[in-house]
Amino acid sequence: MRIAVLGGDGYCGWPTALYLSQRGHDVAIVDNFLRRLWDHELGAPTLTPIRSLPERLRTWHRHTGKAIESFVGDVTDYEFLSTLFKEFEPEAIVHFAEQRAAPYSMIDRQHAVFTQVNNVVGTLNVLFAIREFQPECHLVKLGTMGEYGTPNIDIEEGFIKIQHNGREDVLPFPKQPGSFYHLSKVHDSHNIAFCCKIWELRATDLNQGVVYGTVTDEVALDEALVNRFDYDEVFGTALNRFCVQAAIQHPLTVYGKGGQTRGFLDIRDTVRCVELACLNAAGRGEFRVFNQFTEQFSVSQLADMIQVAAHKFGLCVRIDHLPDPRVESEQHYYNAKHTKLTDLGLKPHLLSESLLDSLVNIAVKYRDRIDDSILLPRVNWREARNDRRRAPALAVAAKAPRSNGKANGRGNGRVRQVSPVPVA
Amino acid sequence: MRIAVLGGDGYCGWPTALYLSQRGHDVAIVDNFLRRLWDHELGAPTLTPIRSLPERLRTWHRHTGKAIESFVGDVTDYEFLSTLFKEFEPEAIVHFAEQRAAPYSMIDRQHAVFTQVNNVVGTLNVLFAIREFQPECHLVKLGTMGEYGTPNIDIEEGFIKIQHNGREDVLPFPKQPGSFYHLSKVHDSHNIAFCCKIWELRATDLNQGVVYGTVTDEVALDEALVNRFDYDEVFGTALNRFCVQAAIQHPLTVYGKGGQTRGFLDIRDTVRCVELACLNAAGRGEFRVFNQFTEQFSVSQLADMIQVAAHKFGLCVRIDHLPDPRVESEQHYYNAKHTKLTDLGLKPHLLSESLLDSLVNIAVKYRDRIDDSILLPRVNWREARNDRRRAPALAVAAKAPRSNGKANGRGNGRVRQVSPVPVA
Questions:
Q1: Predicted complex ipTM exceeds 0.85
Q2: Which of A122, A137, A339, A417 is the most exposed place for a label (fewest CB within 10 A)?
Q3: Which of A128, A187, A327 comes nearest B187 by C-beta?
Q4: Per residue in A298-329, pLDDT tens?
Q5: Any catalytic annotation for residue A185?
Q6: How many helices (H) and strands (E) does chain B have?
Q7: pLDDT at A206
Q8: Is B382 on the interface with A (CB under 8 A)?
Q9: Is the pLDDT confidence value at A399 over 50?
Q10: Which of A150, A185, A237, A366 is catalytic?
Q11: Which residues does residue A27 pair with via DSSP β-bridges, in sequence order?
Q12: Is A387 on the interface with B (CB under 8 A)?
């Protein structure tokens, strides 16, 4: 199958592209490297030393004999996207090419506007390009479980049957997203549903949970294929961040009470879910929603598990409860359905002791690259301007010995905040 | 009360600004005249000869002694918007400043992207400006009943209590908007609800029905205060368009079966509803939704009523059913609640015989300005590119005698389509 992975240089996109290539699909990676630019903007590089895309692709070819094409450009640029469709003729588009961090979207007005315009326009362009060039092409779009928020009822997969005043209908599940980023995904979902209806497009919205881990079989083939691993307060997902904190014996930073419960999944399941969606395409005119996660945990549960795993490495960390920088329920009901992907054959990698060990192990392996100044939250949902140029929060607790001081050099409070790249 | 009317030069904004001024409020009009530019883009000027904003405001002052301030600029320009907030210090913002035509948003990709970016960014800017400069300011935002679509259950005012698997919650009413324009309003609603939550803003989302009429007491004071009256396939709302068609004995063009049922209201109720919302502000942190319409009609019912009213003017028109250019249900259940504004004191102007007469009368009065080439639908929802430069549809039926041929000169197929103005 000819599959274009938009955002194929990123945290989920890269291992997905490799996995699909390994499985025998013809893969093209589409990326504009904005994610790498944000490393510089935030002064928060990936823990793992990722290589340039050309080097990654050369390494992949050397190991497997498989060629992955690359298209360098921005999906908000329709001319560029048109070229991709005309040259590659994708049968499926896997669309990761969005700004994906809630805190990034909450930095200030510019970042909020950038996130929504970038994500919404990119997805609109993809929809128009499919309609114009490749109407049978199946859109596999990465959404987020965060679109639903935390309602006091069970969360269904995209749609819910509602009985009301003696009548009933199956309607889109009501959305209560919790950041400008999550809102952008809700906007996308509405736009995609509409285009499926008017143009009879095929689309699958993968409402993904929080991803953890960084290694897949493909990524593990060579150090030059290593995946990015974000641990900073902006792009680092909770479990990955806790592992890094444990590695340097920094307290695990739980926001608020820690009762915030979310769906989680291993990155090895991300790549498999995407392939399952591609192999089992939505029908013409069908807008389909899968909840893509395998287990629910509260943030406190995760912190407890990492604390135990770290102990085996001789790392003693305490758990700190910080004031929650987000506006969210800290204790709530949460029960989200997620059977559609297992019905298609997903065999989940559940969060095990051995996986936790390997996660902590990665953080320990790269401990010298950890910058402890980017761990604590500096983006507060209650503020309309979060000036990240100011010195980071001072409440940094005991840390492990550092082999050199250089890794800390970026957190000196002189990080210059650049504007997000505007849409052309 | 100090009220800024964003989009105060437009079809709803202008009479609203005058009404609020007449009622003793301090009013500022904020507009960038994009709506006037679209007249030129589409070759479809307002039926009524509207005057420039300065002339309008001078005339208003001469008649009433009341001054309305004007701020000329674009709400997607945050610096401009900041100036408004700092200089005018509004207690309420009435936000009409959006691209408001579904067909305009469906012309092609550029118009879809423009509509969503313009509307979403404008509203985000307003929210940030309130947060930054005037956190007590009440946002009165024009939404649309079209956000709900046509579910098979009763439509509530913004929220619905859902019982599911033995639990219940009150959640946002599920949205099924039917154009890129309607989608932009759904995006806005989600963004506004979120900002009310995180920043404790006050907001009222007025989900307005289809507005008809053009005259209010204020507008009627002087010919130089006349309101715009759109009758073309892009910006003309159904009832207004039917009146114009009747005036030139052009068949009334009902799309499809005509069973499409919507909420409607008189423009005199629009202005009153906005004032009621302003006078009864939402609480801090409250996101409130009012369904702003007074009666439901199907499109066929409206056509029948206009046919009867026209007959009294000696105008015989038939009703044509054209293939529906939109993708929508042509027969469906529709029952939308609309009690919150009447609870606040709205006394509706229901659609009466005498009002229908006066509407047809306006169309007859300006008959010489009617261009019959812009009546028939040329924007098809099923197409991704509707090239309006092509000659208009040829199926134009019998028409009334014309006093000169000039009015038809714009419909000669050479209308050049300009790009929508991009966001800076």
A1: yes
A2: A339
A3: A187
A4: 999 999 999 999 999 999 999 999 999 999 99
A5: yes
A6: 12, 14
A7: 98
A8: yes
A9: no
A10: A185
A11: A3
A12: no
